[in-house]
Design brief:
The complex is a heterotrimer. In chain A, helix 1 packs across helix 2. Chain A folds into two domains: about 60 residues, no CATH class; about 170 residues, Rossmann fold, CATH 3.40.50. In chain A, the strands form two sheets. In chain A, strands 4-3-5-6 form a four-stranded parallel β-sheet, with helices on both faces. In chain A, strands 1-2 form a two-stranded parallel ribbon. Chain A is α/β, with parallel strands linked by helices. Chain C folds into two domains: about 100 residues, no CATH class; about 70 residues, no CATH class. Chain C is mainly α. The longest helix of chain C has 26 residues. Chain C starts with about 25 loop residues before the first helix and ends with a helix. The chains are: A alpha/beta, B alpha/beta, C mainly alpha. Chains A and C meet through helix 3 and helix 8 of A and helix 6, helix 8, helix 9 and helix 10 of C. The complex binds flavin-adenine dinucleotide and iron/sulfur cluster (3 copies).
Chain lengths: ~240, ~350, ~240
């Protein structure tokens, strides 16, 4: 808690909202902020540790935000007017995972079961969004190292559904989910003798493509699972 | 009583109907205001009701036959209430001014909106329906999946929208357990081949002969009761559903495929008149009564009374009894007023 | 609640250890868990509905369902709780917490129980990973993945993950060189301090003779004042 609070405190010092690009960090930071704001005991306990680190903050009024939240709730209008290259004909499955939307009392936006903010963003970018029921199922990231078998199974279920629904790629907003879905794809393919070749891309990349940024600039060539088939479709 | 006094009853469900019938039998002038085109309230939706499978129509017909010369205004609501007891004036949506010495609010309840329990997929999955929709199917003797097939396996999920902090309804809706037992029997009668599972947390069948109904459902109809609250449903490509929950009595997680999932939706307060009548609500958002033990038909305002499910979940019999008890409280109030007596209403301490 | 270890049989062939001794129930464990996890770990309101277990991501592999775990904590059966694999299979997905109709947060209960278990010195793959993770972060103030894998799984583990690591490094996704925060020393001192700072009013069952003690199930030297010993005792 204190470690997450440190980041929150650093942001508060500069009076800036904290924007997290990873769901886990977002969740932990939001939780730390909530504790700092609402729980007096916790506030005192954590503050003592923070001041040990040379950080003294007496009150917290910033917000912890997430990339999807900001794109969907702050930049919607800006994006609408700047879409240059609508992603016609691209089918995407939006995967939210656990910590972006749960638990609701900490994250407090969209839904814990069938959230739609990322879907809406993708539609705005011109992509077709498949009806992805596994959008908030757990990918097993946190137990990947210690319970590999089970984690891979969980990941497999998600890949299976996306493939079945005919998605060209999975869109997500968390590096740990990405680790599991992208970096472990090869392991899963080997283990279960299947073939996915399913590119896993960040929501920021999708938005970037629609804005007309060059795929190179977006780092689309840095993916482990090749994004070429996806990019070919956009052209 | 020298001059005839007029009482206005708002809401024509079982509670309002019973109260109006009783009030007019006391010799009072009664006006019954009902929002819908028909009186009868939720009974108009039900097929046969627990615990004895009386047709709902029969109950409505009986209550209507007791109305005497009650003036019934349908398709009408109340837009304003002015004055104080015993000289209220009620403005209706049709623009009429109706004088009232006392007012009875029996505006009933609303169903919980099952879409709020997203993990059950109501409104998304084809074969997830509410108990209200099932009653309509039973009426037609036509229980079918959306694909038009006869369902073989059917689950009834208890406590949907009740006893659930996550939807802000902490209370028990009281009628849905018995209703589930009743529905299970009815399904089994229409579809003897079907297998029926009730997913419950506690079986709350509290009324006279309700327990016997529960026992009958097990003994004669083979209904399976599984103690575990439904956690989530997911849809298979053929439209059937996979349910996930814990069978808590064996302490094992369970997966169950069913063709039809029925959500036992609970009751929520209908307090659309709270502002017009200036009445406070309880923490369950039903109207607050003056005292939970001995003044359950009195509101916090003199001359305004409450009956039926407007003050919390009740079965039909209880709603009717409550309506009649409110009628008695109103009569007592009017008689004391007429005699110029100080009205002894229990007050809040 | 198992009260006797032996599997002696009664004359009627009943196993004696099936009997739960109600007199041994105690609320110490609940208090300890709440002290550890704060309000989030409050479990008194649980009505045993099983919603948490029903939706749980990994319940199929758990020997105690999350609901049973909560129940065992309520009953004070530390032995069952600590022996179960449930704690280490929980992937913190928060489904349970999102759905609990009574506002219990089973995921936070898990975390609190795990923290107590780790402090008592329990050892397994999961705790080792957690510890190593903390150790690496503590040292640099930021994570350096190759070091993490090295410490956790040894050289063998590094080699196993090497092809992936090289691919990642080539694509500029991870750096082969470690980074640190601006002032790592200050950072790690503060973390050390945070860990050794006394836990909020934690009841000490051992010191009360009339309450049943919570047995320590551990293979390493148990219950040191600071967790740093535990960290350094991990294999590397
Ligand atoms: C799914 C379900 C199944 C049930 N099955 C059974 C059963 O089998 N057996 C049983 O005993 N009980 C059953 N019940 C309970 C039963 O429905 C209620 O006890 C009964 O309907 C309550 O009567 P009421 O008059 O209080 O309210 P309602 O039936 O809700 O009637 C209220 C009336 O007031 C009217 N109204 C509302 N607002 C206004 C307004 N502003 N102005 C004018 N009119 C207004 C409404 O249109 C309605 O006609 C069931 C309940 C549910 C939820
Ligand atoms: S009556 Fe039964 S189903 Fe309805 S809320 Fe109460 S316990 Fe749940
Ligand atoms: S969901 Fe909540 S109330 Fe139900 S068993 Fe789990 S912790 Fe207890
Ligand atoms: S947080 Fe843990 S216990 Fe809760 S549902 Fe997820 S895996 Fe299960």
């Amino acid at each position: 808690m204190a470690m997450a609070a440190r980041n929150v405190a650093l942001a508060q010092k500069q009076n800036l909202d904290l924007l997290a690009s990873c769901s886990g960090c977002y969740n932990k930071s939001a939780r730390a902020l909530k504790a700092l704001q609402e729980d007096k005991e916790e506030f005192e306990r954590i503050s003592a540790i923070l001041s040990e680190m040379g950080l003294d903050v007496s009150a917290y009024n910033i917000r912890v935000r997430n990339v999807v939240d900001v794109l969907a709730n702050e930049l919607w209008d800006t994006l609408t007017s700047r879409i240059r290259k609508p992603l016609k004909g691209v089918k995407v499955a939006c995967y939210y995972g656990c910590l972006l939307t749960r638990p609701v009392d900490i994250t407090g936006w969209d839904s814990p079961v069938f959230p739609i903010s990322m879907d809406n963003l993708c539609r705005l970018c011109g992509a077709e969004v498949v009806d992805f029921r596994g959008k908030t199922k757990c990918c097993g990231g946190p137990i990947l190292i210690s319970q590999e078998e089970i984690a891979l199974q969980l990941t497999k279920q998600i890949l299976d559904e996306a493939k079945e629904k005919g998605a060209d790629c999975i869109v997500l907003a968390c590096p740990l989910c990405d680790t599991n879905l992208e970096l472990r794809q090869a392991d899963i393919e080997k283990k279960y003798n299947t073939n996915y070749n399913l590119p896993i891309v960040y929501i920021t990349e999708i938005v970037g493509l629609a804005l007309g940024l060059s795929p190179r600039k977006l780092g689309m060539d840095k993916h482990i699972v090749s994004t070429k088939p996806l990019l070919a479709k956009i052209r | 009583m020298e001059k005839k006094q007029q009482v206005v009853v708002i809401g024509g469900g079982p509670a309002g109907l019973a109260a109006a019938g009783q009030l007019q039998s006391f010799g009072l002038d009664v006006v019954l205001i009902e929002k819908q085109a028909q009186v009868g309230g939720h009974l108009n939706k039900w097929y046969k009701v627990f615990p004895d499978f009386t047709p709902a129509e029969e109950i409505v017909a009986h209550l209507k036959s007791q109305l005497g010369n009650t003036r019934v205004l349908t398709n009408t609501t109340v837009t304003a209430i002015s004055g104080e007891a015993p000289d209220f004036s009620i403005t209706t949506s049709s623009g009429e001014q109706i004088p009232a010495a006392a007012i009875l609010i029996a505006t009933g309840y609303k169903h919980f909106d099952a879409r709020l329990k997203e993990e059950y997929g109501y409104g998304i999955y084809d074969n997830c329906i509410t108990s209200v929709e099932l009653d309509a199917m039973l009426k037609e003797n036509k229980i079918r999946t959306l694909q038009g097939k006869i369902p073989k396996k059917i689950a009834l999920a208890h406590c949907v929208g009740s006893r659930d902090e996550k939807v802000n309804n902490n209370y028990c809706s009281r009628v849905c357990c018995t209703n589930a037992v009743k529905l299970a029997i009815e399904i089994k009668e229409q579809l003897p081949e079907s297998e029926i599972y009730c997913l419950y947390m506690d079986i709350r069948v509290f009324g006279r002969t309700y327990e016997e109904l529960y026992r009958t459902s097990q003994e004669e109809f083979g209904i399976q009761f599984i103690r575990g609250r439904l956690s989530e449903a997911s849809e298979k490509p053929d439209g059937s559903l996979v349910l996930r929950f814990e069978d808590t009595l064996t302490a094992r997680p369970m997966r169950l495929s069913v063709d039809l999932l029925i959500l036992m939706v609970g009751m929520e307060a209908n307090t659309e008149l709270a502002e017009i009548a200036r009445l406070p609500l309880g923490c369950d958002r039903f109207y607050a009564t003056l005292h939970g033990q001995y003044a359950n038909n009195h509101s916090h305002r003199e001359g305004i009374f409450l009956a039926g499910t407007a003050t919390g979940p009740k079965a039909i019999m209880e709603s009717i009894t409550d309506g009649r008890s409110a009628a008695a409280a109103i009569l007592s109030f009017l008689m004391q007023k007429a005699k110029g007596m100080e009205v002894k209403v229990p007050t809040l301490v | 609640m198992v009260t006797t270890k032996g599997k002696r049989k009664f004359v009627f062939g009943l196993k004696q250890d099936r009997l739960a001794d109600g007199d041994k129930m105690n609320s110490q464990l609940v208090k300890q868990v709440v002290a550890e996890g704060g309000k989030g770990a409050a479990i008194a309101a649980c009505m045993q509905c099983g919603t948490c277990s029903g939706g749980c991501t990994n319940v199929d592999s758990m020997d105690l369902t999350p609901r049973s775990l909560v129940l065992m904590v309520q009953r004070g059966d530390w032995e069952k709780v600590i022996k179960s694999n449930t704690l280490w299979l929980c992937s913190s997905c928060y489904i349970c917490t999102t759905r609990c109709p009574r506002g219990v947060r089973p995921s936070d209960v898990m975390e609190a129980v795990k923290a107590i278990a780790i402090r008592q010195g329990i050892e397994n793959d999961a705790t080792r990973f957690h510890k190593v993770f903390v150790e690496v972060v503590q040292k640099r103030g930021i994570l350096f993945e190759p070091e993490l894998i090295h410490k956790y799984a040894g050289l063998e583990g590094v080699l196993k993950q090497a092809p992936l690591g090289i691919q990642l490094a080539l694509r500029g996704k991870i750096s082969p060189f470690p980074e640190t925060v601006k002032n790592p020393l200050k950072f790690s001192q503060a973390i050390e301090k945070a860990k050794s700072c006394p836990q909020p009013q934690q009841p000490q069952p051992q010191s009360q003779p009339d309450t049943p003690t919570i047995p320590v199930v551990a293979s390493t030297p148990a219950q040191k004042n600071s967790t740093s010993q535990l960290v350094s005792s991990s294999r590397n």
